[in-house]
Design brief:
heterodimer, A: alpha/beta, 5-stranded parallel sheet, two-stranded antiparallel ribbon, B: 462 residues, mainly alpha, 19 helices, 0% strand
């Protein structure tokens, strides 16, 4: 037994060294400063850095969270051209590939005192709990995005938020030994350190302008039609083949049933955001941005959905489900999912207008 | 259950706890059960084969010791025939069948059988043969306790890819077993960490360069690509196999067994003879003791010496795999050794001076690398394409990433330091915290440079 004790002592000490070196490199600000700006973690950090240091004009402030639909479709700068005169200002914290699970941590970092915003706007693909299986809850990229922000105390809750046990194990390992999660970024850095430092410096100096002045995509689906009887799609000649396939795929993947797993995921993830702003006057605004270049010919009922369950919650404001459906026109879209620059210009103003109006009226109670 | 996976280390932890917590008398049984469990996790269907060979060689050795004359000879013939018979059937049947079919003008797979190569068969049959021959020669006593012999053949650290352990070394440890000292524990743990680093950090990342190239050699034209891919494979195979044996030796050391070293910085060799004194030492000494010397070695004149060298290396090549590529690789090594002998180079007593040492190392490295083309390329025509490309003009970019070149350079520095100062020996005598720090750094490299999926060890296929 003495021998076993000696072996285990050496093994334990060695493992302690591994954790110490990992912590020294990846639990200090050292590595997060040189993350690739276009990586999941790097982009998240850049958005965070820009939004944290932004001085908010106006009396009332709204933060719009979101994924690529909001990153492409909503411009805080355009929204503010409309809203500032009414005493409101908007800020966007949209990160492509993110989901509501990520936004909780984004809010925690951007607004640690919970006094910065009057409202937080959260988009939903649909108010019905449209089935995605466990796809949204099990998205491992959430770990990559948040890796710099997750501490040891976050581990239990974050790991539990992934329903799949195999993903949980991966996430746990990636959180305990952060080097595993940073691996690809590190290899990329080592392959060309000079390029990386140039990119990082550029983002540090121009990050705010890059985010604020992004005009949106100039691609358009104008001229696209669908024959719902035959299921045939017609595209104008300028649309690339990859975009056509993605558009058709987006309609094909429209799932005509609600899913309790999606309901549970929304309840847990949005619930954490509601919990974050518990005992504050901050309102949480739910909205559904324009989803497709043409509205689908069928729709899942929102009855019994997570969003519907929040009607009557005094801290939640739900914008009408179909508030932006009239924008589901091909000329507003760059592809099957994202608005183009024309759509961006219109949606930014209309979202700001709807939110201001809803918050000024004390919130709407119906979908 | 690859050595480089968490599952294996969990298994090893359980074995360690059981082995050291149980009464001493149970130790052999625990190791035997663990070894068969380990083998069964790969493919339980080959357990009867392993058991059959164990029983045959166990009985044969006792017969050889007890009987005289023809019965003794009969016993050794049966034993060797059984070992080579199984090895020949599982490893070489389809190769022989495809060549036979080609001679008859039939499709190569005409006589094929769906044969799966039992894991580690090349290693444990050589281990068995050396034991039986040693008993026959009177250099080893026949083992009387079946559990001991079964453990010798199936001991899990070296079962699947060596090193090929000699019976006298193994039983010296088993019969006079002593718990590992602090130095053993430190050295064994260091070797395990070093082996993991070699495999995961170096071999698997060099494989990421070599595999795509050799997977489709015609898709990657140009001399630069070929030279880069061959360089990558040259490092991959060394780090892969020596990493495996480091882990094997380290595991055994933690259980109180002292396996001989199997690699001694082979790419610092200054001649091909020197290379073979440093590369896969347990195989090259086995070939020397049980093939080259019985053939006559170098005692019967120059011509027969060259013949013996060629035969030994050709069979050594064939041992690695059933294909003409391995035969050519073995032949290439035989030719190089013969030429060296003819020119009086490679003699152990005539080491090059300090000025000539580096050029000699580089030439040896280049010659060995060329040989690896036959070892790695999937077919003979592919080997010839790569060989032509190696000497073609530059085209394309050097495929090995800068970070890997830095790691290769760092490992060269470590190898030189090891050669000059014996780092491994110092590790065993160093304070525990400093050994833990070294192991910590090695494991941190594994964390940073590991691949998402485990890649099997190259020598598992042999």
């Amino acid at each position: 037994m003495r021998t076993l004790g000696r072996i285990l002592a050496l093994a334990g000490l060695s493992i302690a060294f591994v954790f110490s070196i990992d912590a020294l490199c990846f639990r200090t600000p050292f590595y997060s400063r040189i993350l690739a700006p276009d990586s999941a973690a790097g982009y998240f950090e850049n958005v965070l850095a820009v939004e944290r240091k932004r001085v908010l004009p106006g009396r009332h402030h709204v933060l719009v969270c979101g994924d690529s639909q909001i990153a492409e479709g909503f411009s805080a700068k355009l929204a503010n051209q409309f809203a500032l005169s009414k005493g409101w200002s908007f800020e966007s914290a949209a990160v492509s590939g993110s989901s509501v699970k990520v936004w909780y941590y984004m809010l925690r970092e951007v607004d640690p005192a919970k006094t910065r915003f009057d409202a937080i706007a959260i988009p939903f693909r649909d108010y019905a709990d449209e089935s995605q299986g466990d796809a949204a809850a099990n998205r491992e990229i959430n770990l990559n995005m948040l890796i710099t922000r997750l501490g040891l105390r976050d581990i239990p809750a974050f790991v539990r938020s992934f329903p799949d046990p195999a993903v949980r194990r991966q996430v746990l390992l990636g959180l305990l030994l952060k080097g595993i999660t940073y691996r690809r970024d590190l290899h990329d850095f080592l392959s060309s350190p000079n390029n990386r430092m140039t990119e990082v410096k550029f983002w540090r100096e121009h990050g705010t302008e890059l985010l604020d002045n992004y005009p949106g995509s100039d691609q358009t689906l104008a001229g696209m039609r669908v024959n719902w009887q035959t299921g045939e799609f017609y595209f104008p000649p300028q649309v690339p083949a990859a975009v056509k396939d993605a558009v058709v795929g987006r309609y094909a993947s429209y799932i005509l049933k609600a899913d309790t797993r999606e309901h549970d995921y929304r309840a847990a993830a949005v619930g954490r955001i509601l919990g974050l702003y518990r005992n504050t006057n901050v309102r949480i605004v739910f909205f559904k941005p324009p989803q497709r270049p043409l509205p689908p010919n069928v729709e899942v009922s929102e009855s019994g959905s997570y969003v519907a369950s929040q009607i009557g919650n005094p801290r939640v404001v739900i914008l009408p489900r179909h508030a932006f459906d009239d924008m589901q026109q091909p000329e507003m879209f760059a592809d099957g999912l994202h608005l183009n620059s024309k759509g961006r210009a219109e949606f930014s103003v209309r979202l700001a207008s709807e939110i201001i109006s809803a918050l000024s009226n004390g919130g709407k109670e119906s979908l | 259950m690859l050595f480089s996976t968490p599952q294996f280390f969990l298994f090893f932890l359980v074995v360690l706890v059981l082995f050291y917590a149980a009464p001493r008398a149970w130790g052999r049984v625990i190791l035997l059960v663990a070894s068969y469990y380990f083998y069964a996790r790969w493919n339980w269907k080959f357990i009867p084969l392993l058991l059959s060979l164990t029983v045959i060689d166990y009985i044969a050795a006792i017969w050889i010791e007890e009987k005289t004359g023809a019965k003794r000879r009969f016993a050794i013939v049966v034993s060797i025939a059984a070992n080579l018979g199984f090895l020949g059937f599982f490893k070489y049947y389809n190769f022989a069948a495809s060549n036979f079919a080609s001679v008859l003008g039939l499709p190569p797979n005409h006589f094929f059988l769906a044969v799966v190569l039992p894991l580690g068969i090349s290693f444990h049959t050589f281990q068995s043969i050396s034991y039986v021959v040693d008993v026959y020669r009177g250099q080893q006593k026949a083992i009387r306790r079946p559990i001991d012999y079964a453990l010798f053949i199936s001991f899990f650290p070296q079962l699947v890819a060596g090193p090929i352990v000699r019976a006298r070394n193994f039983f010296a440890d088993l019969d006079n077993w002593q718990p590992p000292t602090q130095a053993d524990i430190q050295y064994g743990s260091y070797l395990i960490a070093m082996g993991l680093t070699k495999k995961i950090v170096l071999a698997d990342n060099f494989a990421a360069v070599a595999d795509p190239y050799f997977g489709s050699v015609t898709a990657h034209p140009g001399g630069t690509m070929a030279r880069g891919a061959v360089f990558a494979f040259t490092l991959q195979i060394f780090f892969d196999f020596s990493g495996y044996t480091d882990i094997a030796i380290g595991l055994a050391r933690l259980l109180g067994f002292h396996f001989p070293i199997n690699f001694r910085r082979p790419y610092l060799a200054t001649s091909i003879s020197d290379f073979w004194r440093r590369w896969h030492i347990s195989l090259s000494t086995w070939l020397r003791d049980y093939l080259y010397i019985p053939l006559g070695g170098s005692r019967r004149g120059s011509l027969l010496t060259y013949r013996n060298l060629m035969l030994t290396m050709l069979l050594g090549g064939l041992w690695h795999g059933a294909s003409w590529n391995f035969v050519i690789w073995g032949g290439y090594q035989g030719v190089l050794l013969s030429v060296e002998r003819l020119l009086g180079l490679g003699d152990r007593s005539r080491k090059p001076g300090i000025v000539l040492r580096v050029p000699a190392m580089l030439i040896t490295f280049a010659l060995v690398s060329i040989g690896w083309v036959f070892f790695r390329a999937p077919t003979l025509p592919d080997s010839l394409i790569v060989l032509r490309a190696l000497f073609a003009r530059n085209l394309g970019n050097w495929p090995v990433p800068a970070s890997m070149m830095c790691l290769a350079a760092a490992s060269l520095v470590i190898a030189v330091l090891e050669e000059r100062f014996g780092l491994g020996e110092r590790i065993s005598r160093a304070p525990m915290w400093s050994v833990a720090a070294v192991i910590g750094v090695l494991l941190f490299l594994v964390e940073l440079f590991g691949q998402d999926k485990s890649i099997p060890f190259i020598y598992f296929q042999f």
